[in-house]
Amino acid sequence: MIRRHPTTLTLTQSDITEFDEKCEARLVELRAQGLRKNSIPKKQFFEGLNKPEGQNQSQAQGGRN
């Protein structure tokens, strides 16, 4: 039997603020590519969040228009 151990993740207010800013920047970037807020695929949105800054622009434009 596999026992699962709970994992505690502690986020500070600055962590939350930083993530919020990255999300907003990613949303602005995808809107500049012609995508509307409700038509951006989740996978495409979140793929760009994990990349170092400055590399998001090279992402392929594979979303719905």
Instruction: Give the oligomer, counting copies of the same chain as homo and different chains as hetero.
Output: single chain
Strand content: under 5%
- Morphology call: flat
Major sheet details = none
Order of helices and strands: HH
Q: Helix/strand-derived class?
A: mainly alpha
Main attributes of the structure:
65 residues, mainly alpha, flat, disordered C terminus, APC_suCDC26, ubl conjugation pathway
Overview of this protein structure:
This protein has 2 helices and no strands. The protein has a domain at 15-49. It has helices at residues 13-32, 42-47. The radius of gyration is 16 Å and the shape is flat. With 65 residues, it is mainly α. One of its GO terms (cellular component) is anaphase-promoting complex. Residues 39-65 are annotated as: Disordered.
Write the layout of secondary structure elements.
Layout: H1 13-32, H2 42-47
Question: What's a concise summary of this model?
Answer:
This protein has 65 residues and is mainly α.
